[in-house]
UniProtKB/TrEMBL annotation:
This is Mevalonate kinase. Its main location: cytoplasm. Residues 129-217 form the GHMP kinase N-terminal domain. Belongs to the GHMP kinase family. Mevalonate kinase subfamily. The gene is LOC112467828. Gene3D superfamilies: 3.30.230.10, GHMP kinase, C-terminal domain (3.30.70.890). It comes from the Eukaryota. It holds the Pfam family GHMP_kinases_C. The keyword Kinase applies. Its EC number is 2.7.1.36. Residues 312-359 form the GHMP kinase C-terminal domain.
Length: 391
């Protein structure tokens, strides 16, 4: 029986969030915090689909035949999967039909996340099963998915989740047809496309940057669905600081769009400035790869820090920051570090760029100050590999 493990990184937007939704440039990097999925076929005699998503406290087991009859029976037609909205409606109806398996003792927020996770799971399973011709009949299986990423904090947890699921079902299809040990470029492109369609269910109008970073890894420049990648990733370490303030990506994106409609002569120049800033940051990141001299490297790290300060100011002008995020960025400046929000803002996380020669003692003092104010702090690195099949 088939059994394997998949993992995908999270993401941090270094420059350009919100502007990227309006066709501008953003620079993002994969985050060395990963989501991991374990898949195993079960004996057919069990006739179950077993789902375990511990990060949203979701543990389900229900008859495989119920799923199969709904999506692969006579009343379901292949043409339905070509319409994202129609398939989404069918998936939601199916989840309503098995609603009794969801624990109603949880909070409304947690139940909503559980339902959203199930929608992503079944949407991708059905879509890819039809597209990639998975031999799914009478195949019981178990999926366990966990993450090192804080959920709903701007670190790409939903994209990493979707990429892992898409990669899982694609890999399953390939294994049924023969050996398959790694994803080639065409398969990565498919995974990113499948994950983007799934992201549209959860976020309505995603830019495509999250699923791209979680699929391909590295540091990328993204504009209008076109991406460029730095082949050799510079050694960049950051502190991730979680405000523990929940926020809605949909709400934040909608808020900026409304502000743009109300005051285009003010907001459009801000978005243009973010675009220019992101392009300059991209050039600087590429230059870091070309120099080994410490003085030149220090100069360019200083330039990146300057752009971080500017980007945070522009995002604040778009009213997507938060007092807690401002507190983090201000405290970073007192230690000569640069910090900004990452993701939708309104809460979630900030990142602090650490100089290459940052003193460990200074970092510890800064970290302690943040933790004393109730923030969660994680040191990590940027530019790790994208989605992979684990050994």
């Amino acid at each position: 029986m088939i059994e394997f493990k998949i993992s995908a990184p999270g993401k941090v937007i270094l420059y350009g969030e919100h502007a990227v939704v309006h066709g501008k440039t953003a620079v993002a990097a994969s985050l060395n915090l990963r989501t991991t999925l374990k898949f195993a076929e079960l004996p057919n005699s069990e006739d179950v689909i077993k789902i375990e998503f511990p990060d949203v406290k979701l543990y389900l087991k229900f008859p495989f035949c119920v799923f199969f009859d709904y999506f692969f029976g006579n009343n379901f037609h292949y043409s339905l999967i070509k319409d994202i909205n129609e398939l989404h409606i069918r998936v939601k109806d199916f989840i309503d039909s098995i609603d009794h398996v969801i624990d109603k003792n949880n909070s409304d927020t947690l139940i909503e996340r559980q339902r959203s996770s199930l929608q992503a799971f079944f949407y991708l399973l059905v879509y890819i099963a039809y597209e990639e011709h998975i031999n799914i009949e009478e195949t019981s299986f178990h999926v366990h998915l966990s993450t090192e990423l804080a959920v709903n904090s701007g670190l790409g947890s939903s994209a990493s989740f979707a990429v892992c699921l898409a990669a899982c079902f694609l890999h399953w299809s390939r294994l049924q047809k023969g050996e398959h040990n790694t994803f080639n470029k065409d398969e990565l492109d498919k995974i990113s496309k499948y994950a983007l369609n799934c992201e549209r269910i959860m976020h309505e109008s995603p830019s495509g940057i999250d699923n791209s970073v979680c699929t391909y890894g590295s540091i990328i420049k993204f504009k209008n669905k076109q991406l460029d990648m730095i082949p050799q990733v510079p050694d960049l370490k950051i502190l991730l600081v979680n405000t523990n303030i929940t926020r809605s990506t949909k709400k934040q994106v909608k808020q900026v769009a409304e502000l743009k409609d109300l005051y285009p002569s003010i907001v459009i120049p801000i978005l243009d400035s973010i675009d220019a800033l992101s392009n300059h940051a991209w050039e600087t990141l590429n230059e870091i790869n070309q120099f080994s001299g410490s003085i030149k490297l220090d100069d360019r790290h200083t330039t990146l820090s300057c752009f971080i300060h500017m980007n945070q100011g522009l995002l604040t002008a778009l009213n997507v920051s938060h007092p807690k995020l401002e507190m983090i960025c201000t405290l970073a400046m007192t230690h000569s570090y640069a910090g900004k929000l990452t993701g939708a803002g309104g809460g979630g996380c900030a990142y602090i760029l650490l100089p290459k020669d940052a003193d460990n003692g200074s970092i510890k003092i800064f970290t302690k100050q943040l933790e004393e104010k109730g923030f969660e702090v994680t040191m990590t690195s940027l530019g790790c590999s994208g989605v992979i099949i684990e050994d």
